[in-house]
Structures are given as C-alpha cells and as structure tokens.
Amino acid sequence: MNRKTLLITFVLAGFLTACAMRRSEPAKQKMFEPATSQIANGEKIFMAKCQKCHPGGEAGLGIGLNPVPAPKFLKRFQIRHGLGVMPAFKKEEITRQELHDITSYMSAWKHY
Q1: Which residues contact 53 (CB under 8 A, 6 or more apart)?
Q2: pLDDT by residue (tens digit) across 74-106?
Q3: Which of 34, 50, 76, 102 can pair with 40 through a Cys bridge, CB separation 3.0 to 4.6 Å?
C-alpha cells in the first residue's frame, strides 16, 4: 500500500469510528425555554393541535416543519386552510392571535 492510500484509509477509519462512537452516546439536549409569553402560548397550542402529526416539528404523520423555509404568513395560511391531508383549523379552533403565537413558537424553535 502506498502512503496516500494508507493515509486515506486511516482518516476514513477514524471518521467512521468517531461516527459510531457518537451514535452510542445519549443525546444531550437542553430544554427549550420560551423567551416570551407569546412563544410560550404558541408552544402550548402547538402541543395541543400540531404535535400529534408533527412531533417536535419533525416529520411524523405530517412533514417536518423545522426545515421548511416558508415565511410565517404562508405557514399561517397553511394552518388556517389546510392542504392535502392536513386539516384546516378554523377561527373557532385556533384564534388569530394563537395562529401568530404558533408561528412565533415555530420560528423560535427553529433557531433554538
């Protein structure tokens, strides 16, 4: 084996070993703490209305919401009118203020 092949093999083995070791460690996550009462209310409403299909903003029954780069007004439109299998949430279910709180929570969680 020449030096270049040996070096590449060594680096690749080290990388793969490091990845395997990381998977065996428990995930260390700090708790999300809402910075404002609006975000805290958005979290409460999200957990009650959205969490069952979008757990933690990740994919579940519905798509993952965290990586979606859509602006807040489009997300509010989606929540209010639904699309595909996602139900529409009428004003009686989620008020206008709660709708804004949910998108503020989603934005805060995304940047957490």
Answers
A1: 60, 61, 62, 86
A2: 989 999 999 888 899 999 999 999 999 999 998
A3: 34
